[in-house]
Amino acid sequence: MELVDLVRQEVLSLPNEHSRIREKDLVEKMGVSRTPIRDALKQLEIEQLIERRKNRGITLRQHSPKEIADLYNIRAVLEGLAGREAAQFATDKDCDQLEKISRQYASEKDHRRKCELDNKFHNCVIAISNNQQLEELIGRYLILHRLFSMIFSLRKVRHDAIKKTPFSHDKIIAALRQNDSKLTEELLKNHCLWAKNRILEISTGIEIDR
Question: What is the Cα Rg of the chain in Å?
Fold first, then answer.
């Protein structure tokens, strides 16, 4: 695992969404000099995971509702495309693997682990699309999804208050098994848009119909 991945993992494991991220602490924990740590933090700034503010140092970035909506709208289009392409290549073995991840996701109680499994599911679908450029593009949005999920976990949002998606993993898997490109694209796109609305509801307190 590269240093930037280790630093990202550390940032996404902070105990508080307003915690300061200190270069000195990362240097000591990673056992490297300040220069590579600064380079890794610059990459996380580009990814919009962290931000530097005067008198506050480095903290997790606080995204506005519009930024969240814009990011998810882009992700929805890209993942829809990945789904359409994945449906052309999906095998029974691929779908069996997705079902295994989906079962783990459904039974998991820990919010952070649940988010990791959800990302794993989406990454697997994207990998099946056999489109490296698309995989790299979507990767950024999945990282930000982890950030939003982590923040809401820290805010102790009740799981029973979170609505269940009508565009479930099971429906996506079924469409892939049928090699139905159009349906897989539609389900993945709507799955992402549904997630956008739920995150906006949690961040603004305003209910969004979908």
Answer: 18
CA angle 11, 207, 150 (to 5 degrees): 10
CA–CA gap between residue 163 and residue 85 (Å, rounded) = 29
Give the number of domains in the chain: 2
Mean pLDDT for the stretch of residues 154-176: 76
Q: Is the dihedral of CA 68, 160, 12, 77 positive or negative?
A: negative
Please check whether residues 161 and 104 belong to one and the same domain: yes
Closest CA relative to residue 155, chosen from 206, 205, 207: 205
Q: Per residue in 107-125, pLDDT tens? A: 998 877 888 899 999 999 9
Compute the distance between CA of residue 148 and CA of residue 62 in angstroms, rounded to an integer.
9
The two tokens of residue 119 are 């990302």
- Residue 52 carries which DSSP code? E
- The residue type of 29 is K
21-42 pLDDT, tens digit each: 999 999 999 999 999 999 999 9
The reply to whether 185 and 82 lie within a common domain is yes
Could you give the 3-state DSSP secondary structure of residue 51?
strand
